[in-house]
Amino acid sequence: MLLFSLLSVAIAPGLSLLTYLYLRDKYDAEPVHIVVKMFVMGIIILIPIMVIQRGLQLWAADLPWIVSYIESAGVEEFFKWFILYHFIFNHVEFDEPYDGILYAAAISLGFATMENILYAIFTPVSFSMMFTRALLPVAGHAIFGILMGYYLGKAKFSKRRKYYLFISISVPVLLHGTYDLILLSLPATWIWYLLPFMIFIWIWGLRKMERAHARSPFKLYIKEDEVNY
Questions:
Q1: Where is the secretion signal located (predicted)?
Q2: Rounded distance, CA 36 to CA 191, Å?
C-alpha cells in the first residue's frame, strides 16, 4: 500500500505538468496520441541513458563539473533533443512555435516520471522526499524541455535554423548542468541557491511560452473569425 502511494506521488507531478502545458496550447491543440508518444519515448530513452551514464562513471573523471555537464546534463538532454529532432521537427503537426514546447516538455516529463518511479521503488524514500522531487527534479526537467522546445520552434520557423538548433541543445545542457553542479558542490546549502535558480528559469520559461503563443499563425485566423462572427 505504501509503495502504491509513493508511486502515485511519483507519477502525478509529471502528468499534472504535462496536462497544464497541453491546456496552455491556445490556438491549435496537438493530437493527444503524438503527445503521449513523446511522453512514452521519454520513458524509453531512460534505458540507453542509464547504460551510457554507467559507462561514463567507469571511465570518466569523477569531477563535479564533468558529472554535472557531461555525464548527467549532456547525455540526458542530447537524447531528448535527438528524439525531438528526428521524430518531431519535420512532422506535419509541428506547425506553430508552441508545439515545440509541448513536445519537448512531453519527452522531458516522460523521462522525469520514469526516473521518479525508479527512485520510489529502489530508494528508501518518504512522502516529503517525493514531494521535494516533484518541486525540483520533475519541475526542472519540465523547464529544460520548455526552453529546448522554444528554441526548436525558433529553428523551425526562422531562417537562422542552424543557430537556433545549436541554442536548443546548449541552453538545456547549461541549465541542467548548473542545477546538478549546485547539488553536488553545495550539499549543505544547496537549497539557498537552487530555489532562486529554479524561480528564475521558470519565469524565463513562462515568458518564452507567451512569446511562442504570440508568434502563432493561428492567432491571426482566430482573430479574423471573431471579427467576422
A1: none
A2: 33
